[in-house]
């Protein structure tokens, strides 16, 4: 391979080195940057068809666009038209103009379109394919608007002119039908045929059609059920149903990168060789050349007499010129099947396939939390010298675009792409540091691989827009669970990035052909989705077996044990007192979530709740009166800083908002220390100007933002997370740590029973609880607040296997820490000090549930149960994956007779609900119903019945 060229002389660190570990890493912490960026952006709101309006396309003779009957066409404003400022163009799916809307129609629609109040789509009734001269063509305009009923009510009067006979829209509840809809029921004839039984003279074709229709209905129902299931495990089930059925029989790449060829340190497994061949085929797709050939990205080859043309079976678009087809797809193998190595072997296998108009460099974009997984996987599996790799991250990133283009692989994060992007309204801050050569945007990439591609699920986010603007010849999305629910729009965003299956990659067509009809459980759309997914998505799961019944990846068994922990006398008393005060308070049903969180924290360690919590609760119960809660006074800088620290901790602990009961999204804290999503608290304040928790008078001006992420050095110095080995002298001087709680003591006794050759992961949602465990046992730690460099170091340390102490000399291979929580010292030790290799990793559920390889461990402790059991499953998947050679033991630690035991019961019941949702026996719930159901769950934890109606 060609020798590495040098980058700018300004940084020796940035030299193009085959060893990526020398590349500049993060100098600024952006904890969980990418996901937060996504969450903080405006939500997407789907629209629906209000009315279909029959009209014409005029001026057809002046344009070259061809259309066929039934074809979907775009309707686009043309405000610069010199003859008519209301002009509206009609384009076919390839973007070629067919004509205009009549002036009278355009005059009515243009103002509504200009104000983005409606969107308009066309469906052709006839076409101009025959070549016969036409002045006009017939079409139907579907006029669409927001599905929100209040906004629809406002808009309908403005569209009366488009309703049949201009009689206006049907009054809700009347039997008129004004809007086209789709029905789930089979067609009348089909139902009769089915009822008559197989002996009836129904042709085989009809039977097959009927079965297909029923399957599609089932799929549609599953899709509809997804809208209310916020559970990635369930989404994965739908994904499995959508992706191709023949994937176990896929052909294997005959000459993959290998050990023998000196490229890999471990040979690819069979399913990876299959994936490699599938990936290469998807990078080099070819349009069909015969009428009998299967469609490629929905394009068929057809003939009309001697005239050959391509026909898009999704949009019914004919065109004579060869349509553009995209290169790339979605790699969605389930967690732990080795997608990383598969994608790296794709890079290696195609190194000689050098593009003519692009560089030969592959850009990998990953969330910060899994960035180091790529570098580690390269170290572990790729022979040195095979790939020239560069990590582009942090403020110190200074490789010039031209230099980056000469690497084989450049690894970066979503945040870095956003920062280098200069497009759009949000570009101003990026401009300050922008390079003259455009950074990542200055390279024409051979290939882009998006790891955890759902980070671009919301097309309105800056990240999503930036990523779609990167230039590349081939595009890949790697994800364990792409969300394909009808409401969530991430699949549309993924297609937009991938630029495959045009025009489904355009929001308008995705919405028309998939998102909207799917939300109405339209079987045709479900069938289209299935066809789409099986053609562009590779999905295998660990549970799959090959034709000989062998698992795809043989893994040792996993045993899960629920460990019941009794609280000690003191904890029990405090718990019972707080529980009964909370019980009394929940009559209001407003602060139930916050009280539940405090109870959950209390059973982990009493120090996790505020010192005067019980007294405050009692006081609050005695004065449920707004008058007792005066408006907030002006706060001093110290008080603001303290509140910000509280909010920061809540974000780290993935706490939920007490208004929407979802994870805090763009959170704010009030002077009374209660925190909410910005959107939720704004809505509450607009109605009642009181804190929903303690009814203190508040205004928007009282909302305090989270603190900015501290720079990396601060993390090193402030003791928040101390990664240096503990200095023994200092330890002697430090005051003793707080006593271990019952849960921690139980954890310690279990850890002591574990064989000395085994490593353990200790997961908790609450990083403050990890702090408490940290003062009791030696550990390494991984959480969302850690800078990237530290994360990589910790993972590397932990990956070192333990040696049997009987066989090894005492070695100080790595420091094992006990946290000096602001100067406090360590208490006990799990390991004989002779063996200084990390044995226990403390890991936050939020930061550690996705994308990490921790197969060095075989024991998993889940310290606090929650009803999002999917996150716990993802945590277990960190150890239950390729590379795991030992049996895995999972201990779910549950404090006896507390909220935790009830949470477990709810977890089981939820499982049932989710199954019902998937079998279609439950109807769709509205957002409010969902919220109420959640509130009922919360209240049930207190052993009460929740509200049944909107309060
Ligand atoms: N051919 C192979 N031989 C040996 N080990 C392998 C092989 N392929 C993958 N692995 C190991 O399997 C583990 C899982 O791989 P990887 O992280 O790529 O999974 P993944 O599918 O990306 O999972 P996730 O979706 O959780 O990120 C890693 O420890 C990796 O080193």
From TrEMBL:
Helicase ATP-binding domain segment(s): 320-500
Alphabetized UniProt keyword annotations: ATP-binding, Helicase, Hydrolase, Metal-binding, Nucleotide-binding, Nucleus, Zinc, Zinc-finger
Region of interest: Disordered: 1-24, 181-202, 698-718
Membrane-spanning ranges: none
PROSITE patterns: HELICASE_ATP_BIND_1, HELICASE_CTER, ZF_RING_1, ZF_RING_2
Family statement drawn from the similarity comment of this UniProt entry: Belongs to the SNF2/RAD54 helicase family.
Name the UniProt record assigns to this protein: Uncharacterized protein
Species per Swiss-Prot/TrEMBL record: Tulasnella calospora MUT 4182
